[in-house]
């Protein structure tokens, strides 16, 4: 990871915007920029625009319920475009970089969810992310209640499958607490992406990349624990200031 203070400042500038104005796809791509210093961010945004335009045309053919609409978007992404979960190498860090997910059509629930959310947004489908334990989900609300999509498979989740995901993550049987199905903010989505990378790089003892990830987490959610971990890694990169939730030093996280 070769990003420097300028990359981090750009990331901070973007994510400190209010939730409604935060460009999730651009922010997610900026997470990848330190690893890919020549990353063509407009190119990947255009790829999402193209998928969104395709979905919008399909949806314009006839009226659809919210559930039918997101099922149509999922069909375009997961069956026609070929996006799918990386079952063979789940902890490959490329699964956490949005550019790689677009190029390889391969990812993990959180990054595939970002693709699905961004294409839904471009197609006029109101969907939100759900930071479910162990497995990020996508939710759409209709007249008859909420529907959940598993972005790892592209399929709708029934009650039995949701219970199974909950039991696998928590060891608890039965229906999950409804609070676990509440919408996640864009800041929470970005933090979950970064924490995935944090776990991968910590497991590999990759101190340089871990430090870069922690610096980005600190932009979104500064804490004493993060400061101490950065100190153990030799401190922040040269020129990177300490971020805080107040004043002009860093973003106010909603």
Average of the residue pLDDT scores: 90
Distance between the termini: 28 Å
Strand order of the largest sheet: 6-5-4-3-7
As a percent range, the share of helical residues equals: 40-55%
Give me the secondary-structure category.
alpha+beta
Specify the CATH class of the domain at 40-184: Alpha Beta
Q: According to CATH, what is the topology of the domain at 40-184?
A: C8orf32 fold
Beta strand %: 5-15%
Q: What CATH architecture of the domain at 40-184 do you see? A: Roll
Counted beta strands:
7
Radius of gyration over alpha carbons?
A: 18 Å
Name the overall outline.
globular
Strand-and-helix sequence, N→C?
HHHHEHEHEEEEHEHHH
Main sheet: strands, sense, barrel: 5 strands, antiparallel
Low-confidence residue ranges:
245-254
How many alpha or pi helices?
Answer: 10
Structure, described:
This protein has 254 residues and is α+β, with helices and mostly antiparallel strands. The protein has a domain of 145 residues: C8orf32 fold (Roll). Helices cover 51% and strands 9% of the residues. It has 10 helices and 7 strands. A 5-stranded antiparallel β-sheet has the order 6-5-4-3-7. A two-stranded parallel sheet has the order 1-2. A hairpin with a 6-residue loop joins strand 3 and strand 4. Helix 4 packs across helix 6. The C terminus is likely disordered.
